[in-house]
Specification:
Helices cover about 40% and strands about 10% of the residues. It has 13 helices and 13 strands. The strands form 3 sheets. A 7-stranded mixed sheet has the order 2-8-7-6-5-3-4, sandwiched between helices. Strands 9-10-13-12 form a 4-stranded antiparallel sheet. Strands 1-11 form a two-stranded parallel sheet. Helix 1 packs antiparallel against helix 13 (about 385-400) and helix 11 (about 305-330) runs parallel beside helix 13 (about 385-400). One of its GO terms (molecular function) is kynureninase activity.
Length: about 425
């Protein structure tokens, strides 16, 4: 007997221990199905209120006196991230700059810590900015960027990393959750393999922070970066975070020597003397408004609990895969994500994925398109319901049955 998928979705929502968190977000379009929270998270209600206070009272009234509280905001958010979202210790995470800038800082510091080694290792499906930054670091230092091939649907494997390692590798830099497929890499296994070869490891956590457990401490991870505007819901352009293992902090020196990384910054001394803590990886004035937005977003994830978030994200993805199996395989779709071991998104391959993504937007479903020919569907556990997944896939099925996607051009321009 066929499963009543709508009834199943309603039952799963009724049993969802995180259901109440949806009310913590601004959702002004009840008919909109939002499948792109893994690119930009929704606005938390608390953030809107907190930023109004920061602008009206702290900036508007307190003026420069606000720095009495703002000066420690980066570490406050970092410590909350460390304890609630990442498996790390206080004093190992701080907030500031963009993911690309933080990746650059840590990559250079890591290469400097392995003099004589001439190779940086990454994979060909790593996020573009990671590959570009690493390519630039390698070029500036007359090093080689060794790019190992990886399956875009399965992700990088421990076996392939082991095969690419040798005693000339200074740094291994990979994404924990693949941006295209959502595949979760073996963070602990790859870290151990890199350490056995004498290399340091730098992980990109952009698609894992706030979506899946990140065992930095137990895996002995050296370095990591991540953004706050996806599953941590800190808003467009929100600052990135970086992680440096405690035992490495005093031995690594990052390349951008700014006054916020100085040991006694307000002494205004004549020479740079880096702070003996994670603060040495800061550069300039921290983003206060973005920092407050990150704080509010991380507080929501902390209240929900990363294990419960991961469990719901997995269940949402499993439900989506079931709907794909039943409804979409007859229409030429192929699953471009692992059936297990995923982050909080599922990717489908179709030759007309671009046109289908535009038809979905016309049907009030916001997906994400990724090359080559992939429809990426993100399920943010704090506010995405099982009925949202049902509704979004039902609209997708209708589009395919009616072939309404054919109204859109394959050259990524809309046709009316």
């Amino acid at each position: 007997m066929p499963v009543d998928r709508l009834t199943q979705a309603q039952r799963l929502d009724a049993e969802d221990p995180l259901a109440a968190f949806r009310d913590e977000f601004v959702i002004d379009e009840p008919d909109l199905v939002y499948f792109d929270g893994n690119s930009l998270g929704r606005l938390p209600r608390a953030t809107r209120s907190r930023l109004r206070t920061a602008v009206d009272q702290e900036w508007g009234v307190d003026l420069v006196r606000g720095w009495d509280r703002w000066i420690g905001l980066a570490r406050e958010v970092g410590d909350l991230l460390a304890g609630a979202v990442l498996e790390a210790s206080p004093g190992e995470v701080t907030l500031g700059d963009s993911t690309s800038v933080n990746l650059y800082k840590l990559a250079v510091a890591a290469c400097d810590a392995r003099p004589g080694r001439r190779v940086i290792l990454t994979d060909d499906d790593n996020f573009p900015t990671d590959r570009y930054v690493l390519e630039g670091v390698a070029a500036a230092r007359s090093m080689t960027l060794r790019v190992l091939p990886s399956d875009p649907d399965i992700g990088v494997t421990l076996a392939s990393v082991r095969e690419a390692l040798d005693d000339d590798v200074a740094l291994v830099s990979l994404s924990h959750v693949a941006y295209r497929s959502g595949a979760i890499a073996d963070l602990a296994g790859i870290t151990a393999a890199a350490h056995a070869a004498g290399a340091l490891v730098l992980w990109d956590l952009c698609h894992s922070a706030g979506a899946v457990p990140v065992p930095l401490r137990s895996a002995g991870v050296d370095l990591a970066v991540g953004c706050t505007y996806k599953h941590l819901n800190a808003g467009p352009g929100a600052p990135s975070f970086l992680y440096v293992r405690q035992s490495l902090q005093t031995s690594l020196r990052q390349p951008i020597w700014g006054w916020f990384g100085q040991q006694d910054q307000f002494a205004m001394g004549p020479a740079y003397d880096p702070a003996p803590s994670v603060d040495r990886f800061l550069v300039g004035t921290p983003p206060v408004l973005g920092g407050y937005a990150a704080l509010c977003g991380v507080q929501l994830s902390a209240a929900a609990g990363i294990d419960r978030i991961f469990a719901k994200g997995t269940a949402l993805g499993d439900f989506a895969v079931d709907l794909y199996d039943e409804w979409l395989t007859p229409h030429g779709f192929a699953l471009a994500s692992p059936r297990s071991g995923r982050g909080a998104h599922v990717t489908l391959h179709h030759p007309a994925a671009w046109q289908i993504s535009q038809a979905l937007r016309d049907a009030s479903v916001i997906p994400d398109y990724r090359t080559p020919d992939r429809l990426r569907l993100g399920f943010a556990p704090l506010y995405t319901r099982f009925v949202d997944v049902y509704e979004g896939f039902d609209r997708l099925r209708t589009i395919m049955e009616a072939e309404s996607w054919r109204r859109f051009s394959a050259n990524r321009s809309r046709v009316t």
